[in-house]
Amino acid sequence: MVTSRSAVMAACWLILAFLGSAGLYASLQAPFLAVMQVLVYAGAIMVLFMFVIMMLEGPVMPAEARRPRPWMLLGAVIPAGVILAMVIWTIKGVSLPAFPQNLPEGFGQPLSMAHHLLGPYLLAFELISIVLLVAILGALALGKSERSKPWK
Amino acid sequence: MEVGLTHYLVLAAAVFVVGMVGFVVRRNVIIMLMCLELMLSGVNLTFVAFSRELGNDAGHIFVLMNFAVAAAEVAIGLAILVEIFRRRRTVDADDLNTLME
Prior knowledge:
Chain A has helices at 7-27, 31-57, 70-93, 110-117, 122-143. Chain A is mainly α. Among the domains of chain A are: 1-62, Four Helix Bundle (Hemerythrin (Met), subunit A) (Up-down Bundle), CATH 1.20.120.1200; 112-152. Chain B has a single domain (5-95), classed as Helix Hairpins, CATH 1.10.287.3510. Chain B is built from three helices and no strands. Chain B has helices at residues 5-25, 29-54, 59-88. In chain B, helix 2 packs antiparallel against helix 3 (59-88). The longest helix of chain B has 30 residues, at 59-88. The chains are: A mainly alpha, B mainly alpha.
């Protein structure tokens, strides 16, 4: 995804990556999240990306003019390598037990999610809805054409 | 070999790092936003893996919140991008250097 020149191809690879992580969620006994990943990420968010790519660049996306400068590549790869090495080194130090075989009843099922969301995490649930509402309003305000803005 | 928490954590770190490298290296703002999504995806995978490890699915709630934050971020980010494109006719981060001049 990072190396593909055209934004459309990058978006396609990203959809593939999201579908793959939905599969990983399913393998981690999180069926609800797997479905949400496909619906929200691979569906809604990537449609938004595709829409903007098509709108801004037209069907023929010009390839990126400049190749990444070497110092830029260096500045990206060194911190990335440090982070990866840190994670692997930390994990190597401790012996992590295998995944437990007996999970609680209804683990990761929608009912359990609902009990969490409308129970201890009710405040977070309400706040995130406000975040989404403000995001919608902000996107609308930004998207309005210049002349019809009421504050102009 | 049994697949355990370690493998998921390393994979999540790798996904995060790929997103990070892409964010720094690429200059197309659309692709930079996509790399942000990839980084969030790596973090989500860590949450789900630890949730499975601890047998407590409260971690899934954090992932759901992350979904909502990512959606809001993309909506705002792309709206700003469209507005920039209207004014400057470019989506290249190197051309958006008004504050540097």
